[in-house]
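Q: Could you fold this chain for me?
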Amino acid sequence: MTLIDTHTHLYVSQFDEDRNEVIKNAINSGITKMILPGINSTYINLQNQLAKTYFSNCYSAFGLHPCDVKEGFKEELKCVEIELKKGNAIAVGEIGIDLYWDKTFVKEQKIAFKQQIIWAKEYKLPIIIHVREAFNEVFEIIDKLNDENLTGVFHSFTGNIEQANKIINYKGFKIGINGIVTFKNSGLDKVVKEIPLQQIVLETDSPYLSPVPKRGKINESSYLIYIANKISEIKEISVEKIAEITNKNAKEIFGEKMSLP
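A: Sure. Below is the predicted structure, expressed as structure tokens.
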């Protein structure tokens, strides 16, 4: 059985001591495809290096994370555009709006989000959306820009069923489910039960949000199996079927590179 991790930050400092071991462990565990969404320009070189070294397993997306939209964000956006022009990106992301920590740059976050959506459509790439405490703001922008050329994933979904249905009604988007679904008091399991499996992709968001029973440890892509097992339990479907359908969903969004043997 193989699985696709549609969201893992393997290039961050938490993996500096054992990055290659973590990647090889994931591959040996059946996590043979991993998407590496961007955060800011400081990580681009390592993202590209990993995509080159593990060319059959790791695929980079480039985008300016909303929490990194600060003064001078337009220079950061130029770095994103440069990478998109090279044609090596599998997606634009992660992008979006985050109003949980700081609302200082909400205007700039919206500008950056819109611009990166425009680029995604121009380069015919899906988007990976980060949304925290900002569903209304994100929906407002997607409502205006959505068309048959816009596809992607609402990453690390923590919304309710009404918000999930709105995403589904956009037609071109899937819902990313990660370790939060295993958290006892998250309530996400009840929402996931109502979301059609055909709308779900799996992700770890490593090194963050380690699933039960690995909470408190640095998350890694090999832990994706715990998320698949939890969804199998929720849906009362075999984990092999969970893998089959979510892999198919990932391929629909990210293309032939996600094809598995």
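A (continued): The first strand starts at residue 3 and ends at 5.
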